[in-house]
Each structure stands twice: as structure tokens, then as C-alpha cells.
Amino acid sequence: MKIRVYYEDVDIGGVVYHAKYLHYCERARSELFFSRGKSPVWEGYHFVVSRIDARYHAPARFGELLEVKSSVKKLTPVRVVMDQRVEREGETLFEMEIELVCIKENRPAKIPDYFLEVLR
Amino acid sequence: MKIRVYYEDVDIGGVVYHAKYLHYCERARSELFFSRGKSPVWEGYHFVVSRIDARYHAPARFGELLEVKSSVKKLTPVRVVMDQRVEREGETLFEMEIELVCIKENRPAKIPDYFLEVLR
Amino acid sequence: MKIRVYYEDVDIGGVVYHAKYLHYCERARSELFFSRGKSPVWEGYHFVVSRIDARYHAPARFGELLEVKSSVKKLTPVRVVMDQRVEREGETLFEMEIELVCIKENRPAKIPDYFLEVLR
Amino acid sequence: MKIRVYYEDVDIGGVVYHAKYLHYCERARSELFFSRGKSPVWEGYHFVVSRIDARYHAPARFGELLEVKSSVKKLTPVRVVMDQRVEREGETLFEMEIELVCIKENRPAKIPDYFLEVLR
Q1: A21, B94, C32, D43: least buried by Cβ within 10 Å?
Q2: Where does B2-119 sit in CATH, by number?
Q3: How confident is the model at residue A14 (pLDDT cuts 50, 70, 90)?
Q4: Nearest CA distance, B19 vs chain C (angstrom)
Q5: Does residue C109 belong to the interface with chain B, where contact is any CB pair within 8 Å?
Q6: What ipTM does the predicted assembly reach?
Q7: pTM of the model as a whole
């Protein structure tokens, strides 16, 4: 998934605001579903973040075209662990391991097949 | 209502991103309700924006402390027109006239007394 | 320019936060330059917003694919007035007239040819 | 530092968007400096994030008043490690360990006394 760095993304130093990488990665996770004609919110089921371990290697700048790469690392009945990285022309600028919990009615819920078809 | 300009608010030029003034004004409108122990979302009623006429006079910068001033200009059964301005030490940096429509279940609805007590 | 509505864009009502349309339109203005291999920030020259007159017609929702259409309405030596609209399958959800001023070193400056080639 | 949850902060589920906690924590770090009449950007020196390890315990909701607590965990000549947590009435909703690197002219730099007086 390609993402352009716009005005709204950079801060006073001309580099991407640190929290924006989480936005980029969330867009990429949602797009995994959208690109298959599905939605990450389905019949009350959705994912919430429970853990993020992130490393920042180099800054992205205004106007650059970045790429987000995502892979599922671990899948349990209720949780998904993913590796996501933001690259610029093959160079990793940011990488994180993120753990998500499937939720329905504010409680952890077994990930439905509708989601599993995308995550597997 | 006082608002500090943080990293997330400024763009590449070191000045506040233009759309952020709308965020600041929305916080101030919500705070009108919160400061009276109420909420701008009540029993399904809430406001949506139908029109904004905004003028930008001077930029705000990182670290500055701004003030948002809000006043109700016109009140009809379903709509509110407000004047809002963002000031820095008495100087107006941004001003807008905003029209809001009261909504319930995706349809315009008569503004309930619960909201009117704040807006009058 | 196509824009997907992500988690970060919607608010409590499940519809796009009103200020986000300004973000979308800014991305589209920047992309006018990027798509021609140029940048909207060039040798110290860039644009700042001086006026926005916006109308909200209908809400966009999570997951929808929107389109931003932009056209230059008026061009003076220092200013540009543009019409921008956000559509969903041909239906206009949001439209605005925006006036931008070309700036260099914090002062209004004659729009350089580098920008004019894009705006004309 | 107290932070109110506004419209812009919550997503489709009515809870605070996960990346927003990083925004809240950044505001609190900046406010450490502002509250002492200083700025986190000084003579070209500033901090960039190199690592974040975050845990999400419970969601915050629209209108709630949160508190961000920050403490310096480790201080080296060039780096700071901080613990930050977001609480609601004493309950920890979010906590993270964040590592920041002092930067000048895009390179790691010894943290100046101007910053150390705040961090110690």
C-alpha cells in the first residue's frame, strides 16, 4: 500500500510526526479488508489494539511516497500479531509489531471466519 | 478556552495547519457543554456542520497559547449559527461563522431544551 | 484523486469529522503538484489559506471511497481561488471555495512560473 | 496534565483512536517544557522518537477527562527513556515506555543543559 506524505503529516521539523506511522499502518490493515471487498468492521466485530512495539529508524519527509508492508505473524482464536513496516524505496523507516484483539460488544470474541479469510 | 499549539498541530512551515483551527473551534463548542456538566451528544441528538465561512488573518506557531472565543449569533428551532474566533494575546488569527444543524437518527431535529440551556 | 475513509477520519457518529474534508482537499491540491513531478513547496515559495467558504451536503462514512475534484476559479499575481468538491459516486458531499496566497519569507509573493504551470 | 477527549479523538467505535494516546503523551512531554517557560525546540536541538513499547488496557471515551503522567526512567548523554501513562480517575488506560534521541542538524547530539534542567 502506497502512502504519500502530505502537509498534515509533517511537524515543525519537516519530518513525519511520530504517531502518523501508526495511522499509516492502520490504513494498511483496513485496506487488507477493503481490497478484498470486505470491511474490518463486520456484524459488531472489529479489532482493537492491545500492544505496540515500534522502532523508528529514519524520518520520512513531505512529498515522499512510502510503502506499508504488513504480514500476520501469529494468529490465536481471539488475537492477531502482525509485523508492519513503512519503507521508502526499499529502506525501512519504521517497523512495529502490533497485537490486536477481536472485540464484539466490548468483549474479546473469537475471530469470525469473515476476518480469518483475510488474515490467513 | 485556552489551547496550546503542539507538534501535531503545525505543518512544514512551522505554523498551524489550516484545518486545525476547525478542530480548535470544535473543542471549544464541545467544552461549552462539558463545562456545564453536559455533553454535546445527548439521547441521540447531536450537531453536524452545514456551513463554514472562515477567514485566516495571521498564523499561529508552535508553543503559543491561543484562546477560542465563541458566541451564538442566531438560533432557529433546528439550527445554530455561531461566531468563533481564535486569538493570540487579543489579536484575531482566525475567525469563522459556522452553521450547525441538530440531528437525531440522521435527520434534522428540533434542538432539545437540554442543548438550548447552553446555547441561549 | 481518490480517498478512502479510514478509522482516523470518522468520529463518534460514524461519519467523517467535518475538518477532515479540508485535509482531503489539501491532499488533492498537493497532489496536483506531485502528479506533475513538482512540489507545492519550492524555493521558499508556498501557499497559505486566507479564506474558506464551505458547504456540507451529506456525510461520508467509514470505508467509502471518495473523489476530490479541484478547479482553479481565479488567478491573480499573488492569489488563487479554487473550487473543490468531495464526491461519492457522483454525489457531492462537500464543496468549498478556497482562497490561497502565495508566500515567501512570511510575506505575500508573486506566484512563480513553477507553480503557474500547474495552476493554469 | 489533563486532557479532554473530543470528537476528533474518537473513532467509529466511540473510543479514542489508538494513535491518539501517542499524541496525548507528546503534548504532555512538550508541556513539561512549556510549564517551565521553556520550549522543547531550542537552538536547533529537539527530540525525535526512536522506540515506543505501548500497552493498551482499557478504552477512553468521548467527553472523558484523562490525565497523562510522565517520568524520566533513564537519561544518557544523548537519549532519554520515559514512562508515560494515560489515566482516567486513577485507572491506567494506556502506558508506554518511549525512547527519545536528542537531535541537532539531523544528527544525534548531546542533550543541552537547557533540556537537562527539565528532565532531571
Answers
A1: D43
A2: 3.10.129.10
A3: confident
A4: 6
A5: no
A6: 0.94
A7: 0.96
